[in-house]
Amino acid sequence: MINTPLFVGQLVKLSPLEPERDAETIARWTNEPEYLRQLTDGPAQPLSTAQVKKQLEKATKGPGGMRRELPFAIHAHEGGNMLGSLRFERIQWSHGDAQLRLAFGAPEAWEHGEAAETLHLALHY
Description:
Blueprint: E1 12-16, H1 19-29, H2 33-39, H3 49-60, E2 69-76, E3 82-92, E4 97-104, H4 114-124
Antiparallel strand pairs: 1-2, 2-3, 3-4
């Protein structure tokens, strides 16, 4: 029997994105150029809390079962602060294939191993 939690590492833990909880934090990050560069190759555009909440609601309320997108919040293992987000996009369940989008908004998570551990957790999913 495996006793290793699927979404918990030594530095980070993954949880579902929750529009009510996470929209304000992500909206604040959209005012930071470093965060915006991670999200899109299009023009950078800061977003309001309401805009982010609407996007998160759309992403988290997809049809059940064979969803084509799975979004997660990345939290610090110690303290629980939100550090960023992880999304599996364009999922092809029958092929075991997906695109992965990873963005860290919290500067304290840059270059300390959180991204590597998040990728490790995602790839083992």
